[in-house]
Known about the structure:
Helix content is about 55%, strand content about 10%. By secondary structure, it is an alpha/beta fold.
Amino acid sequence: xxxxxxxxxxxxxxxxxxxxxxxxxxxxxxxxxxxxxxxxxxxxxxxxxxxxxxxxxxxxxxxxxxxxxxxxxxxxxxxxxxxxxxxxxxxxxxxxxxxxxxxxxxxxxxxxxxxxxxxxxxxxxxxxxxxxxxxxxxxxxxxxxxxxxxxxxxxxxxxxxxxxxxxxxxxxxxxxxxxxxxxxxxxxxxxxxxxxxxxxxxxxxxxxxxxxxxxxxxxxxxxxxxxxxxxxx
Length: 233
């Protein structure tokens, strides 16, 4: 059985961006989404003007797969129960709020098993070391000090690979930054995007002629403020 790679995921996003006729953009990705954002920036270097990578890395360290082999021998319902129990422990910091854990696990359980399997295989096989070292865009890297999936050490390595990138570590947070510390994420992203004053106006296109042509930064800030209000409701 063949599995989709991170580069192929990046290609799908790149084609989607092309189909929408978007101009310059800032790519924001969490976990595997951060790796996909790096792949997108590599494939559309002239289009991606900035990156925000949350709880991401270029390559996961090799681990003993005894846990997967053990799960394979368990009955389906027991295997599913063990998987979600391990996922909760891996994804969230011990001090994460009950609401954050409940939302995250509900979303995870809503994913199709084949989607989770493909993502796991893509993450285990990826190595974006080369593309990361060739990036030439402003990049913000965010990670939690208690992240047990993409550790601060992996974030530090990512920071060393990407020239001029900024690394911010949130004490006490786990892998699910968007759910555990949304206010901190919002503030860091807004500050980062606001500092990108060198970005030019988004090119107009026939499809959006007549619409307001604000700068990319102002559009992103408006969107981010909307998300920030939604997360704190």
